[in-house]
From TrEMBL:
Residues 66-196 form the Heparan-alpha-glucosaminide N-acetyltransferase catalytic domain. This is Heparan-alpha-glucosaminide N-acetyltransferase-like. The chain crosses the membrane at residues 67-84, 104-125, 137-156, 176-194, 215-234, 320-341, 353-370, 382-403, 424-443, 470-489. Keywords: Membrane, Transmembrane, Transmembrane helix. It comes from Abrus precatorius (Indian licorice). The keyword S-adenosyl-L-methionine does not apply. InterPro entries: HGSNAT_cat. It holds the Pfam family HGSNAT_cat.
Amino acid sequence: MDEESKRMEEGLNPALKGEGKGEMIKSNNNNNNGGCIIGDEKDTMAKGVDEIAEQEQPAVKQKRKRVATLDAFRGLTIVLMILVDDGGEAYPRIDHSPWNGCTLADFVMPFFLFIVGVAIALALKRVPKKKDAVKKIILRTLKLLFWGILLQGGYSHAPDDLDYGVDMKHIRWCGILQRIALVYCVVALIETFTTKLRPTTLGPGHLSIFTAYKWFGGFVAFLIYMITTFTLYVPDWSFVDHLEGDELKRYTVICGMRGHLGPACNAVGHVDRQVWGVNHLYSQPVWRRLKACTFSSPGEGPFREDAPSWCRAPFEPEGLLSSISAIISGTVGIHYGHVLIHFKDHSERLKQWVSMGFVLLILAIILHFTDAIPLNKQLYSFSYVCFTAGAAGIVFSAFYILIDVWGLRTPFLFLEWIGMNAMLVFVMAAEGIFAAFVNGWYYENPHNSLVHWIKKHIFVNVWHSERVGTLLYVIFAEITFWGVVAGVLHKLGIYWKL
């Protein structure tokens, strides 16, 4: 493998500063979580022994150029999450699709997994000791699991509910960070243990990258998901719904079938009910916004009198079987990282990325519109994986052209800053921890807090519209605010690493 490729390495949290002309920065060897760095230095050409001895120049410290696209793409994903989470209630069309279909919110999770895959391919390019690499992978996985359960398991009620704590009988074991942890752990371990099995150079041909890197993890995940989804028998099941007060009512959902892709009797939900237990699943699934459940569809509203019983049932959108399917999203990201490593020319990289992105999009569209496998985020269907991974590849390629090829970094700096401190912004903004802290200081009534006052008097009342005011609040008081905070922290060299 050429010397340039051997010097490429990447971490999950960039902690490097100083974007000079040509976007060259010094690497911090002690920062194990640095941003994407590509060695762009060239060996000093020999000028003759006498000339070098005469000049007696000191050794030039090697520099490395980082691919800013990775930070910007990660920042874009965080921004989308904040937008759809806090603005989706006012604009249901951008919120998660109630079942089949794909909305703006449905791109967030696969975009996360895609960029995690790209980062893994670069971070584990050179593994001096597999034992050390495995330790780091396991430790990071455990950190992600801890934060995921703490933030989404029910312990935190941020931002509006100021109490905290969770009944262990109803704790939610799954969530966004938990899914990222699983995908990261699987694909990173496979990448680590297969590094030495690959050829050092690629053969000729457009498809040589596929022969050098086998999609082992993605292929196994595909088989497990597809076989289980279409062959597992789903029996009748029941759940208890909490009505007004302390009244409880038990409902039974009639199934007794295989291969069903609807809300009630799919294998994805059955696996989670058996593994985690129905009490530990997400209690407010998006299918409650279906027309079969409410007249307010696609928004939330009271249940119809003739609503099926499953409308009230829990369902885990980040469950076990769907997370196995999500491994494919991470595998696609790793492939894009491998292309970045082996192809040095911009045009070659873009040919690989764009062509694969369009192939995945076309395959997904065919599967969806022929009703073979509909796009479905809740089930994390194969067509959904292909569609969102293809979209991620196209967006990533567009960012690469604008930022790293044409050098238009300034318009995307706020995305880079957010991407550099993605974990911090996710916890404080997307999970509402900072807003909950501010809400904790109120006057007489919990709704008389600074956050509520700003939203009501500066945005909603000024525009005389709850929807427009909410959208502007999210854009300026959350996204723009945290972009500025992330920029200040970047200038100070402060990053939250896992």
